[in-house]
From TrEMBL:
<protein>
    <recommendedName>
        <fullName>Chemotaxis protein</fullName>
    </recommendedName>
</protein>
<dbReference type="GO" id="GO:0005886">
    <property type="term" value="C:plasma membrane"/>
</dbReference>
<keyword id="KW-0472">Membrane</keyword>
<dbReference type="Pfam" id="PF00672">
    <property type="entry name" value="HAMP"/>
</dbReference>
<dbReference type="Pfam" id="PF00015">
    <property type="entry name" value="MCPsignal"/>
</dbReference>
<keyword id="KW-1003">Cell membrane</keyword>
<dbReference type="GO" id="GO:0004888">
    <property type="term" value="F:transmembrane signaling receptor activity"/>
</dbReference>
<keyword id="KW-1133">Transmembrane helix</keyword>
<feature type="domain" description="HAMP">
    <location>
        <begin position="205"/>
        <end position="258"/>
    </location>
</feature>
<keyword id="KW-0807">Transducer</keyword>
<feature type="transmembrane region" description="Helical">
    <location>
        <begin position="181"/>
        <end position="203"/>
    </location>
</feature>
<keyword id="KW-0812">Transmembrane</keyword>
<dbReference type="GO" id="GO:0007165">
    <property type="term" value="P:signal transduction"/>
</dbReference>
<dbReference type="InterPro" id="IPR004090">
    <property type="entry name" value="Chemotax_Me-accpt_rcpt"/>
</dbReference>
<feature type="domain" description="Methyl-accepting transducer">
    <location>
        <begin position="277"/>
        <end position="513"/>
    </location>
</feature>
<dbReference type="InterPro" id="IPR003660">
    <property type="entry name" value="HAMP_dom"/>
</dbReference>
<comment type="similarity">
    <text>Belongs to the methyl-accepting chemotaxis (MCP) protein family.</text>
</comment>
């Protein structure tokens, strides 16, 4: 049964008691009114008529004696007037006896009989007076008239006594009715008060006490305690519906807070992993930067060596020309050429070692760049996981806000917490988005670096091939110079071959110089890209630290709840 029906039943019972009491009181008032009306309209009128009869009887006796003393027309008329008034009063009194008892009607009948006897005596007196027989008239006055007058007077007194008796009875009945009405009124008031007290007790037991339980549980949840037991309310009323809705809200809030705590822990762990990955990538970037600096230095050295080699080949070409011009200085020139060839061969050997070193460093740099690409992909995957977690956290915060809104006033504290959780989730999502953007930039830069490194590796491989060819050429030159003394006759042909070889060596050395310059430029570009990548990874590390802080704040907010 609903609370409204319970309250309606209580109010209807109170209303029924009040209506019944008012009905009984109204009936008693009606009885009292009837008795008062009977007293005023009937009893008092009969008393007044009885008084009029006594007055008219006295006046009638007075004028009858006045007529005996002085037989005048005026006395006759006055006697007749009061005689008629007495007859009218008796007639009126007879009309008022229709609802009276037999005793009162008997008194009125006796009064009427005596009045008729008195009227007969008056007629006899008047007849005797008309006959001038005063003695007979006096006899009628002293006998028949006097007896009738005394009878009328006694009858009127009996009527007065009867009316007094009836007035006392009415008075007692009226007092009894008033007493009954008062008792009924006080009884109705007492019953109404008792029923009202019972209604208040029932309302307290069925409404106030369950509501206090709901309020106490709401206060506990507002303080963050979600471990309280569910409300128990067996009645199928509005309080029961409220208790069920409250239990559902508590369970949903418990589930949401638990999920938020788990997600915040995952976000914190992911942020720590991201921070560790960024630190590792920073270390790798620093190592790559160091290697690229070394590569650039070696490329510059190779460029200097190539320049020296080109200069040496130019001098060799000049020597060959001088040999062609003057055979006298051939031996000296050949010795110088041998020395120069030996120095060139040593430079070529040095350049070969340096190019081998550049090739190894470039290959190492390519491997590091590939590792950097893989780590950037892992960061993108971690960032996606963080974005999914923040989206789920935002959805859970939205669900918490909806559940708090359904709770009304008791859910305001949860709405504030849910809003803070939602803001933290949005900030986490923004940070994760920034990380994703930076990761994409890193991946793009890494791809460019990888391409540049591959191009540099190809150039280095070509430089190694050219250096090898130059080494072979310098070996041939050195052999030719050694054979120059024994093969003086072949000086011209040898000079031409040396000149051609020198030109080839010069071209090769120029290509080596250009390759070394390109390798240095590529190394500088790679170093700049790695430095930019290092700065980007530092930003990623700062964002991961900020994400960890936000996750810690989220954990502190959810730690306010006991789950």
């Amino acid at each position: 049964m609903s609370i409204g029906k319970k309250l309606n039943i209580g109010f209807f019972i109170i209303l029924a008691v009040l209506v019944l009491s008012l009905g009984i009181i109204f009936a008693q008032i009606t009885i009292i009114d009837q008795k008062v009306e009977d007293t005023v309209d009937n009893r008092m009128l009969q008393v007044q008529v009885s008084n009029d009869i006594q007055f008219e009887l006295a006046m009638q006796g007075l004028y009858m004696r006045a007529l005996m003393l002085e037989n005048t027309e005026s006395n006759r008329n006055d006697l007749a007037t009061y005689q008629q008034q007495l007859d009218d009063s008796i007639a009126e009194l007879q009309q008022l006896t229709t609802k009276e008892t037999a005793e009162f009607q008997e008194y009125v009948s006796i009064l009427n009989d005596y009045n008729n006897s008195f009227n007969d005596a008056i007629s006899d007196v008047l007849t005797a007076l008309d006959d001038n027989n005063e003695a007979a008239a006096l006899m009628f006055v002293n006998t028949q008239a006097r007896t009738a007058n005394i009878g009328i007077l006694d009858a009127s007194k009996d009527i007065m006594a009867y009316q007094q008796k009836q007035l006392q009875i009415v008075k007692k009945d009226t007092e009894a009715s008033v007493t009954t009405a008062s008792i009924i009124a006080f009884t109705a008031i007492a019953i109404g008060i008792i029923i009202s007290i019972l209604a208040i007790v029932l309302v307290r037991n069925f409404i106030t006490r369950p509501l206090r339980n709901v309020v106490s549980h709401a206060d506990a949840i507002a303080q963050g305690d979600l471990t309280i037991p569910s409300l128990q309310h067996k009645a199928n009323d509005e309080i029961g519906m409220l208790a069920n809705a409250f239990n559902t809200m508590k369970d949903n809030l418990h589930r949401i807070v638990s999920n938020v705590q788990q997600n915040s822990n995952q976000v914190s762990q992911s942020a720590m992993l991201l921070s560790a990955s960024t630190q590792q990538m920073n270390a790798s970037s620093q190592e790559v930067t160091t290697n690229m600096v070394e590569v650039a230095d070696l490329a510059r050295i190779s460029s200097s060596a190539a320049a020296e080699t080109a200069k040496a080949t130019d001098e060799t070409a000049s020597g060959v020309q001088r040999i062609a011009e003057s055979t006298q200085t051939l031996n000296e020139t050949s010795v110088e050429t041998a020395a120069v060839a030996e120095a060139g061969n040593a430079a070529i050997v040095t350049a070969q070692h340096q190019m081998s070193t550049i090739e190894q460093n470039t290959r190492t740099l390519n491997q590091l760049v590939q590792q950097l690409t893989q780590q950037s992909a892992e960061i993108g995957h971690i960032t996606k996981v963080i974005t999914d977690i923040t989206d789920q956290t935002n959805l859970l915060a939205l669900n918490a806000a909806i559940e708090a809104a359904r709770a009304g006033e008791h859910g305001k504290g949860f709405a504030v917490v849910a809003d803070e959780v939602r803001k933290l989730a949005e900030q986490s999502k923004q940070s994760a988005t920034q990380i994703s953007t930076l990761t994409d930039t890193i991946q793009a830069d890494t791809i460019n670096v990888e391409k540049a490194v591959q191009s540099s590796l190809q150039s280095v491989e070509e430089g190694v091939t050219i250096i090898d060819n130059a080494g072979t050429s310098f070996a041939n030159i050195y052999t030719s110079v050694q054979q120059m003394t024994a093969q003086i006759q072949e000086i011209s042909a040898a000079s031409e071959e040396i000149s051609a070889s020198a030109e080839e060596v010069s071209a090769s050395v120029a290509e080596i110089a250009n390759g070394a310059d390109n390798a240095a430029a590529y190394a500088e570009n790679v170093a700049a890209a790695v430095e930019q990548q290092s700065a980007t990874m530092q930003e990623v590390g700062a964002i991961s630290v900020d994400l960890a802080d936000k996750s810690h704040e989220l954990q502190q907010l959810t730690a306010q709840f006991k789950v």
